[in-house]
Structures are given as structure tokens and as C-alpha cells.
Design goal:
Elements: H1 2-24, E1 29-38, H2 46-54, E2 66-74, E3 80-86, H3 94-106, E4 110-115, H4 133-145, E5 150-160, H5 162-170, E6 186-190, E7 205-210, H6 218-226, E8 235-240, E9 256-258, E10 261-263, H7 267-284
Parallel strand pairs: 3-4, 3-5, 5-6, 6-7, 7-8
Antiparallel strand pairs: 1-2, 2-4, 9-10
Helix pairs in contact: 4-5
Length: about 290
């Protein structure tokens, strides 16, 4: 009897392995692909055009800045919802370039990580600011709109640290959105620098920040939300107890001090933030 069972198992094992292989490859993610596109040009205002004509000048339309991006997507033809990802002032760290894209693709999203620095010959902007990055985000959105496998009506903008601040700036009422054709559907900002004078957002927004973050302060985000108008799109603010800047980034497990600010991974806060992002995108990028 025991020998018979062993024989049966040995015969079924190859079939079982093959079956599991089919299951595991049913929805594999396409490998990350390096792509090239341009930021959305800042259009000339009617006022500047009129003044130039009055002086006998003809202004050339501005050109977009050449950019690099890293594209990942689920298997299949789509069209899929998508997420444009903006990195922080320290450029493309592991969690932004690899971990979050893999996670988002596994949830069924196309992901385009925007590299705002390489073509501008920048190493970091942690002591400065690059205000035109909002147009990098819209250049990425325009690129995805032409892909054929993205539903441009269901694209979220997601940023980390300085990229989170860009996310808030790019999706504010009377901001850059008014000058572009395609719009983001939702926004996710990890530990951004909140500004009480930024105004209402143009889309539903999720902000995730650590209670002990002294670089991007939680109290500023709370004050910013308190000043929103009654008819503003919904904003969800999640403040994680005892968590610091970069709480979702495993590369900071040991903790690190950068320009006087602590950056440290927090497993509990990271897990909670991942669940929040999943639920938020599922809600706001639904068909």
C-alpha cells in the first residue's frame, strides 16, 4: 500500500509542478524597461505673447526637457490603471526604483518611475529645489497616454519626500494641471513638505508621514488640511506613531542622519502604509 502511494505521488509530481508553473506565470510582470520622453513644455501665457507682439518680437514655444524613465507593467494588453512615481532629492534609491514598482505591478498597475536628474546632470537637490519637476510628471502622463496599454483616465501620481512635494504641487487647484491636456486621477505623497498656502487639491490625495519626521513635519500637513475649503476633494492624512522620514524604505533599516535629519525604516509603519496605498488606489483608480 505504501509503495503504491509513493508510485502515485511520483507520477503526479511532475504534473503538479507544471500546474504550479502555469499559475505562477499567468500574470507575470514585464521586465523594467528604460524609456525616453520629455517633460511637458511650459506654455507661454497670453499676456507674454501679447507683450512680445507689441514689441515686435515673436517668442518661440518652449521645449520639453529630455527625461529618462523606468517602465514596468503587468502581462497582457490592458488598458491598465497606472502610477507615475517621482523620486526624492536623493535620486533613485532601491525602494523607489524597484520595490514599489514591483508591488504596484503585482496589484495590476503600469508603473513609470521618472528620472528627473540624469539628463540634467544632477546628483541630488537636497539643498536646493527643482520647481519644473511638476512638468516632468505631466510629461510622463503624456507618454503613458500614447502607450496603448494604459487607461489615461486612471493614472495616479505618487512621490517620495521631495517627490511627494512635487506630487502635491502638481495636483493643486490653479496649479500646473490647468496648462496640460491629461489630468491625474489621484495622488499619493509619502512624507512631503506640506504648505498651508498651497490651496485645495484637484484630486483625492493620500498623505503618509511619520510622527517623528523633523524634515517633513506632520503638524504642517495637519495645519494645511485645516485650511482646505469645504468642497475640496478628499484628503487622507496618515501619521505613523514614532516613525521617521523614509519609514517605508528598507535600505534605512539601520537608520541614517542626513543633513541633520533622521531617516529610518519602520516595519510596522511601512506595512500600514502599503495597505493604505493599496486600498486608496483600489478605490480611486477603479473603472
Amino acid at each position: 500500500m505504501e509503495e503504491s502511494v509513493k508510485t502515485t505521488v511520483s507520477r503526479l509530481l511532475p504534473c503538479l509542478v507544471a500546474f504550479l508553473g502555469v499559475l505562477s506565470s499567468e500574470h507575470p510582470a514585464n521586465a523594467e524597461e528604460l524609456v525616453r520622453f520629455e517633460s511637458t513644455p511650459v506654455k507661454l501665457s497670453p499676456f507674454r505673447i501679447r507683450k512680445a507682439l507689441e514689441q515686435g518680437d515673436i517668442l518661440a514655444q518652449p521645449q520639453g526637457t529630455p527625461l529618462l524613465g523606468y517602465l514596468s507593467r503587468p502581462q497582457g494588453d490592458g488598458p491598465f490603471p497606472a502610477v507615475v512615481v517621482m523620486h526624492g532629492c536623493d535620486h533613485l534609491r532601491l525602494s523607489v526604483k524597484e520595490l514599489w514598482p514591483k508591488r504596484l505591478v503585482s496589484w495590476g498597475h503600469v508603473v513609470l518611475v521618472v528620472d528627473s536628474f540624469t539628463t540634467r546632470n544632477l546628483k541630488d537637490t537636497c539643498r536646493s529645489r527643482l520647481p519644473e519637476r511638476a512638468f516632468d510628471a505631466y510629461g510622463a502622463l503624456d507618454f503613458l497616454s500614447k502607450s496603448g496599454f494604459v487607461d489615461v483616465r486612471r493614472v495616479a501620481l505618487m512621490g517620495f519626500s521631495a517627490g511627494g512635494t512635487v506630487t502635491l504641487d502638481a495636483t493643486k487647484i490653479q496649479g500646473n494641471e490647468q496648462f496640460v491636456e491629461h489630468k491625474f486621477k489621484a495622488a499619493v505623497a509619502f512624507y512631503p513638505a506640506c504648505d498651508a498656502n498651497r490651496g485645495d487639491p484637484s484630486v483625492p490625495t493620500l498623505i503618509l508621514i511619520g510622527e517623528r519626521d523633523n524634515w517633513s513635519r506632520a503638524d504642517r500637513c495637519q495645519k494645511s488640511l485645516a485650511r482646505l475649503s469645504d468642497d475640496a476633494p478628499p484628503i487622507e492624512l496618515n501619521v505613523y506613531k514614532d516613525a521617521y522620514h523614509d519609514f517605508d524604505a528598507p535600505e534605512f533599516t539601520a537608520g541614517k542622519r542626513v543633513l541633520g535629519h533622521i531617516e529610518k525604516y519602520d516595519r510596522d509603519a511601512a506595512a500600514k502604509s502599503i495597505r493604505s496605498v493599496y486600498a486608496f488606489l483600489r478605490k480611486h483608480l477603479a473603472n
